[in-house]
Amino acid sequence: MHVFITGGTGLVGSAVVAELLANGHTVLALARTESSAKAVEAVGAKALRGSLSDVDTLRVGAGQADGVIHLAFANDFSSADAVAQAVAQESAAIATLGAELVGSDRPYVVVSGTPYVPGRPSVESDPTSTEGPVGGRGVAVAAALDLASRGVRSTAIRLPRTVHNQGNGGFAGLLTTIARGSGVSGYPGDGDQRWPAVHALDAAVLFRLALEKAPAGTVWHAVADEGDAVREIAAVIGRRLGLPVEPVATQTFGPLGPIFATDQPSSSTHTREALGWNPTHPSLLDDLENIQP
């Protein structure tokens, strides 16, 4: 299958590109910069120069592909306005790619986040979250899934709060960055809230499986660790960096503070059984041991 992918040089995207190429697919990757283009070409993919806001380029990429995987997102959480702009840009891109695939029965894999469900781990049948700072992403993903009724084999992979590799990535990676800057490995609230996680290489396998065989309109959870207590995550980060581990104000984490403070475990039992997905790479707590002081 010839696959067009956005976000192909990110932590998750680079793993997905490698997974696709290793399993006989060819890849055309959207590349915003010359360095990104060289990075995807170095691993055997082809590059299509353009940005997520360039709708004409998105149409070109999707138009010549047998399937599309959308991963790109402007990960700017510096302010509420920056988050809103990133969500708006991505929503327009998701709609553009989906419109190009209508009536073709080609696969379209989009990315979302595992939802928050009070009192229990979220499951694949729970509705996509449409509230909060990034709720607009859920609205766009729901619209993409609705394209199943218009001849698109659209599916959504819900990523957990931390997708990691070599101790980097996701919410845990943000905790590490903040700890380096503040001198404290902090956590909001009492730290008992749980965050689900997955290794990027395991997530990449699920993206491939969804592309190859997931039915239209379906949702899948890329969750390997159902939920690690944030205090435990912060403890490993503090030990690796030689910093004190302490509770800090929720406001420390900016627009994401309320999400950081929420207990949000998630299950992938259905995903594993239905698609035969079996995570094999290190857990988050083990992978955080790779953090360098």
TrEMBL record:
It holds the Pfam family Epimerase. Residues 263-293 are annotated as: Disordered. Residues 3-217 form the NAD-dependent epimerase/dehydratase domain. It comes from the Bacteria. InterPro entries: Epimerase_deHydtase, NAD(P)-bd_dom_sf, NAD(P)-dependent_oxidoreduct. CDD domains: SDR_a7. Signal peptide: none annotated. This is SDR family oxidoreductase. It comes from Fodinicola feengrottensis. The lineage of its organism: Bacteria, Bacillati, Actinomycetota, Actinomycetes, Mycobacteriales.
